[in-house]
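Students often ask what a holo structure prediction actually looks like on paper. The answer is less mysterious than it sounds. You provide the chain, you provide the ligand, and the output is a string of discrete structure tokens encoding the 3D arrangement of the protein together with DTB.
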Amino acid sequence: MFINKPKHTSLASLLRNNWEKSEILELFALPFNDLLFKAQTIHRQYFDPNEIQLSTLVNIKEGGCPEDCSYCSQSLANETEVKAKPMMPLEQILSSAKAAKELGASRFCMGAAWRSPNSRDFKKLLTAIGSVKAIGMETCATLGMLSAEQAGALKNAGLDYYNHNLDTSPEFYPQIITTRTYQDRLDTLAYVRDAGINLCCGGIIGMGETLMDRAGLLQTLVNLPRHPESVPINMLIRVQGTPMDSAADSDPFDLVRIIAVARILMPASWVRLSAGRSEISDELHALCFHAGANSIFYGDMLLTAENPSHLKDQALFRKLGLREQREIKSEHPAACAHH
Ligand code: SAM
Ligand code: DTB
Ligand code: SF4
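The corresponding structure tokens follow.
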């Protein structure tokens, strides 16, 4: 059921890849009610507004990461409670996927604290992807930087989505991470796209970035050759022992605003209300969904941090009349619209 679907405009004509920073800033500056109305109206042209996509994360390789991302519990550069562990055995990956499916998740996302995958673990991972697909779930992985060959191998193994975040604007990026560049990130995104894998790419708010940085992140995402099919918006989780452990609180309306602007810019993409949900109320969840978020990480844990329990989320879905997106779409609306 797609409410308010325009009868004479093609949906594709509403997708643009030439957004100016000033236009994006104008959206951010709209009065709150106007912004939400615009976002909700656009949302209804592409999606069932009462349907929510559920992805479950599993950390298949925890800790010991050589990158120095200053928000991350898993970086060797940060003195946190997370310790390096070997890669999770295949059977455990598969049993976690089955449990996630049982609870209603449609996508299983395997995360690894790697700069890039090594060849031994990568082979194991390719097998894991095949096994997870075989139980009827969409597969996603987030493994750090990839070569074009690795992206091709992931596609052949059956990978549906690759998550690789840009996190913030190109200007602010060097203050957050010094062990890789924005261009490194863009290169991996291009390899993933070229391999024919759907892109999951978003960022974080609450790291001390300005409004200009948030607009810069969204501008980079929307002006990629194709919009990422999935756009995770994370709220910084302040992990003890990271340089960001005492960052200032985010204004809850900033979260709603960035979701609404992401929805307007990338109308056919799944916008995911991601890290930080444990700290926000049911009412703020509802506002984020109204602003166009239609996907969440579902399951009691993210990678190393807690997430609301599946029971709490199910209770919220009942209160809001939200349904889980059950049907796995072989062709994504963003993909169709770009043709
Ligand atoms: N190592 C891979 C990489 O960096 O692409 C995959 C895992 S990494 C943990 C995935 C994403 O999680 C990061 O890009 C970042 O956007 C998000 N993230 C990590 N720690 C976070 C935190 N403390 N708060 C919010 N988001 C976080
Ligand atoms: C994304 O954008 N957020 C997820 C996923 N992609 C891999 C990770 C959130 C991590 C939160 C902190 C933690 O669990 O350590
Ligand atoms: Fe490593 Fe990813 Fe954490 Fe950065 S965000 S330190 S790359 S696990």
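The two ends are 22 Å apart (CA to CA).
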